[in-house]
Amino acid sequence: MAKKELVSQKYAKRSTMGEIWHRLKKNKGAMFGLALLILIIVVALSAPIIFDYETQVINQDLANRLQKPSMEHPFGTDELGRDIMARVLYGARYSLAVGIIAVVIAIIIGVTLGCVAGYVGGAVSEVIMRVTDIFSSVPTMLLAIAIVSAFGVSLTNLMLAVGVTSAPAFVRIARASIMTVRNEEYVEAARALGVPTWKNVLVHMLPNSISPLIVQATQRVASAIISASSLSFLGLGVPQPAPEWGAMLSGGRNFIRDYSYMTLFPGLAIMITVLAFNLLGDGIRDAIDPKLKR
Asked: What is the pTM of this model?
């Protein structure tokens, strides 16, 4: 009996975030994904220290073109003599920035519309959800291509296109989460005290229904990186000669038979980054699942 009381006291002392972190630490896959993600971020931040952007990433050196991996160039050089390792490391900065900022855009659009639909309900909710269904019915890549083609090829438009195509998922999740808590007593009490609607949603309702949004955001970053790389592969992403992984894959496909390393390393970079976010996202989903609480 005393042992059970000690265990209950131990868990009672933890905060909600502490309990989530405790369960997350037990998930080996999530910890592996977190370690990979930290490594990728460190590599991305340290790229300017290791390599010179103008000399090794942008400028052409035709005398050293298509050199296979060596001590001087660990990942080899591309068809223009640029160091592939330098381009892959700098490419991490572009891919992470596009993935994270695109998801932030999706969260701002999706959560705002979802909260309005969930809280107000009625005809407003129907209009928002039907517009969301229209956007969801169009293939995400096709919609992204249309947006980039309409506004022009640039890094900003790429982030906007990926963010808009990711927003419908957040609209649905935010609406469902708000509808779950909108009739709770603390929401009614805040409404009775005259708390403004926007403050009631942001301060009382959204924090108590944010768990599924966190999981969706973590997993959507991986999808956003794949979408951005796909658009860059098609020539609609980050403008040349910026070292984006999808653009590097596109440039190396013509040399894949004799110089496969040109596509191997950018492809591995995409795979490892997406794997890290997916493992972490799955771990967070399991950690915040109330069914897994003791």
From this structure: 0.83
